[in-house]
Amino acid sequence: MYAITIPEPGGPEALVWSEVPDAEAGEGEVLVEVVAGAVNRADILQRQGFYNPPPGASPYPGLECSGRIAAVGPGVSGWAVGDEVCALLSGGGYAEMVAVPAGQLLPVPKGLDVKRAAALPEVVCTVWSNVFMVSHLRPGETLLVHGGSSGIGTMAIQLAKAVGAKVAVTAGTPQKLERCAELGADILINYREQDFVEEVAKATDGAGADVILDNMGAKYLDRNINALAVNGRLAIIGMQGGVKGELNIATLLGKRAAISATSLRARPPAEKAAIVAAVREHVWPLLDAGHIRPVVDRELPMSDAAAAHRVVEESGHIGKVLLVTS
Fold first, then answer.
1. Beta bridge partners of residue 2, listed in sequence order
2. 82 Rama class: left (phi>0) / alpha (psi -120 to 50) / beta
3. How many of the other CB atoms lie within 10 Å of CB of 281?
4. What is the DSSP letter of 12?
5. Would you state the pLDDT for residue 316?
């Protein structure tokens, strides 16, 4: 089979479409013939040499994919050869075939093309686990999403609106904010021109955001705390703005607020399976009914993953960038 390899860390040109040993389904796994994968920021970090796969995971990048089951390993039930699926991965999505623990599989939602389903697993599992399972966003509360036009952001807007929450977003261009509004965002903040702390305060009569989904990390830490409501919850899922920041504990205590920080890739299979099961129970009915949909910016050939990485690094895209095998 062929896969994207990284012989030496570096820029997008470090991604090489190479012939590699065939993937095989082990105990409790299925073998998926990949139709499409999706680009995540974690893939860029791996390419640069900063985010190695966890022990035992595929060495190839790619944290989500879609395709058809080509083989079912020992100990697997409920799945059959030919089933159209999408999958949450620890790696290996940039390839023609990938072995996946059965607990990390999801059926392709009704009415959705199998290719576009590749845009779902990582973003839906990230949003559901952080915003709902950890931060417990409730109807009537306000969610602030940084990077509202990203794959994570576009899904967070839709899921929060589906449960009856109010949504504030930050983005860097009017076009991105317009797309967020089309998805249901109520409060639109251009972070290049506006202070999100002030804008959230104005829009909530001074109350602040009940939940903040943050991809920036250190750069926004202090301001995020200031933007939180009393009993607010800050969920950190990225570090695009650095890894070390100062925190005013007095402000945190005064607001009786909480901070969580999570990642999906390094979690044990049982934890991933629990998140996937919750997503299938709570989110898949919304997808099957057409109430929410993945937002896809463009599709590029998987063999040209370098071009896809350049698109994501330039941050001009809205939603997900997909890599297709044919």
1. 19
2. left
3. 10
4. G
5. 93
Order of strands across the sheet that contains 142-146? 187-190, 166-171, 142-146, 209-214, 228-236, 258-261
The three-state secondary structure class of 40 is coil
Q: What's the CA gap between 229 and 21, in Å, rounded?
A: 52
pTM: 0.96
**Residue 230 identity (one-letter amino acid):** V
Where do we find the tokens 């999958």? 87
Coil/strand/helix, residue 324: strand
Q: What's the CA gap between 121 and 81, in Å, rounded? A: 20
**Structure-token match 């109430």, residue found:** 291
Q: Quote the pLDDT of residue 16.
A: 98
Rounded CA separation 226/251 (Å): 7
Give per-residue pLDDT as tens, 257-285: 999 999 999 899 999 999 999 999 999 99
CB 37 within 8 A of CB 62: yes
For Cα atoms 275, 277, 281, give the angle at the middle one, nearest 5 degrees: 115
HSE-CB at 235 with a 13 A cutoff on CA atoms is 26
- pLDDT tens sequence across 41-76: 999 999 999 999 999 999 999 999 999 999 999 999
